[in-house]
Amino acid sequence: KSTLLNAISTLIDFDGDIIIDNIHTKYMSEEAKYDLRLNEIGFIFQDYKLYETSTVLENILLPLKSSSNKDRKKQINLAKDLLKIVKLQGMEHKMVNTLSGGEKQRVAIARSLVNTPKFVLADEPTGSLDFKNSEFIMDILKNISASSLVIVVSHDFELIKNYADMIVTMKDGQITDVTKYE
What we know:
Blueprint: H1 2-8, E1 19-20, E2 23-24, H2 30-39, E3 41-45, H3 56-61, H4 72-85, H5 101-113, E4 119-123, H6 131-144, E5 149-153, H7 157-160, E6 166-171, E7 174-180
Parallel strand pairs: 3-4, 4-5
Antiparallel strand pairs: 1-2, 6-7
Helix pairs in contact: 4-5, 5-6
């Protein structure tokens, strides 16, 4: 599952074709792949990939350091808006190492949205959370899917089927089923 996300995001080479905006990713230059990852893809990881000794705000703004021409005040306002979306408003100055697992995952989601990505790739975003936090995270991802394509990989079929528009089941690297939900 992680291999699939790594292939979609052009982090690894693979056999086959992935086409994004009518462009075959295997023919993209390294610079174009970097730009794609930085500007068009938001990543959400099971283990958050946050800087534990930095603040919530610093973690959210990290992707903008190398990609944004927005002034600092606009960046901070954007981060605060994202914190409202993930229900963490007022926590921008808290240190990440003081947060619960559910709060860390919501910070990771806010960070994934800071560049207004076309695609959000979520690798087991609820894997280390209890059921209540898992449902809350899935609610957030469902809302995000109104404006970005959200691809979630998970082993938790029962949770995912309540939120997905489509489920692609894979086994040993092969698609075994595709189910669309209305």
